[in-house]
Amino acid sequence: MSEPFQHRARKRFGQNFLHDAGVIHRILRSIAPKEGQHVLEIGPGQGALTEGLVDSGAKLDVIELDLDLIPQLKWRFGLKPNFSLHQGDALKFDFASLVGAEDDKLRVVGNLPYNISTPLIFHLLDHAPIIQDMHFMLQKEVVERLAAEPGNGDWGRLSIMVQYFCRVDYLFTVGPGAFNPPPKVESAIVRLVPYSELPYPAKDHRVLERIVREAFNQRRKTLRNTLRALMSVEDIEAAGVDPTLRPEQLNVADFVRLANRLSEISADTAQGPSA
Ligand code: SAM
């Protein structure tokens, strides 16, 4: 079918469109959408993934920022009864507005624009209870950070905050040739599955965020130095953590114990740390 739409990829919207049919099928197989499920695609672009998603019979909502792509998406998918198009910025979108019944959880999918991938993941984590799972194409380096383990150079704030909420699976790597125009770096597909019950719940996850940010501000220093402004060596030890370690040597559970200790101290002194 010839298409009456010509679109020039826009850098400022992070537009690298997938054109490799093998890669597109592999991504769709990993997601395996089904009728009765509710899928949200972020940044459908010219519909490379959208077509398979809509054909699966799943209920599909898509959010696209670029006004110029809207007519094309409407033309291709607008008549499908299971398709709804939202023009706007996914970073500001109220995902809860899409979900009706309690068991109607979202399966989020996106070949994400690189410039918004980290803030978007944090925005989605705020809605973790209404999300079944997420499949993203991201810069390979970002996926390596998401899936990193303690002690590894990639282990940091992103790994810890995402692994606090989700199980992370590195699925596969995608080379630049799969896109038009090709990006300068390699990409990879990641699956994030929010835990229905957090394995290490923090009393206040904003305190966890604060302590992780503070600790990794100077990742080469020991905890007794990086956390000096927040807690004493005795408090670090009371949380069962060795203050002579560097932040990259701690796992999620260690950071949660530090955060919970900090919440206790703050409650004791009745002047909690501003998160
Ligand atoms: N899904 C398509 C594909 O795989 O070929 C397009 C992927 S392209 C890397 C990213 C898409 O996200 C573009 O269509 C772009 O216009 C859209 N986009 C960029 N910023 C966005 C935002 N803040 N909210 C929603 N969509 C956005």
How would you concisely characterize the structure shown here?
With 275 residues, this protein is of the alpha/beta class. It contains 10 helices and 9 strands. The longest helix has 18 residues, at 252-269.
Name some characteristics of this structure.
about 20% strand; about 35% helix; Helicase, Ruva Protein, domain 3; 7-stranded mixed β-sheet; two-stranded antiparallel sheet; about 280 residues; Rossmann fold; elongated; 10 helices; 2 domains; single chain; 9 strands; binds S-adenosylmethionine; alpha/beta
Structural overview:
With 275 residues, this protein is α/β, with parallel strands linked by helices. It folds into two domains: 11-194, Rossmann fold, CATH 3.40.50.150; 205-270, Helicase, Ruva Protein, domain 3 (Orthogonal Bundle), CATH 1.10.8.100. It contains ten helices and nine strands. Strands 4-3-2-5-6-9-7 form a seven-stranded mixed sheet, sandwiched between helices. Strands 1-8 form a two-stranded antiparallel sheet. Strand 5, helix 4 and strand 6 (131-139) form a beta-alpha-beta unit. The radius of gyration is 21 Å and the shape is elongated. The site of S-adenosylmethionine (SAM) has 24 residues, from strand 1 and strand 3.
Q: Hey, roughly how much beta strand do the residues contain?
A: 15-25%
Bound molecules: S-adenosylmethionine
Strand order of the largest sheet: 4-3-2-5-6-9-7
Amino- and carboxy-terminal Cα gap: 54 Å
Q: Low-confidence parts lasting 5 or more residues at pLDDT below 50?
A: none
| Strand elements, count | 9
CATH class of the largest domain: Alpha Beta
What is the gyration radius calculated from CA atoms? Answer: 21 Å
Would you tell me the structural class of the helices and strands?
alpha/beta
Q: What is the total number of structural domains?
A: 2
The major beta sheet can be summarized as:
7 strands, mixed
Family: Belongs to the class I-like SAM-binding methyltransferase superfamily. rRNA adenine N(6)-methyltransferase family. RsmA subfamily.
Binding site for S-adenosyl-L-methionine: 16, 18, 43, 64, 89, 111
Subcellular location: Cytoplasm
Function: Specifically dimethylates two adjacent adenosines (A1518 and A1519) in the loop of a conserved hairpin near the 3'-end of 16S rRNA in the 30S particle. May play a critical role in biogenesis of 30S subunits.
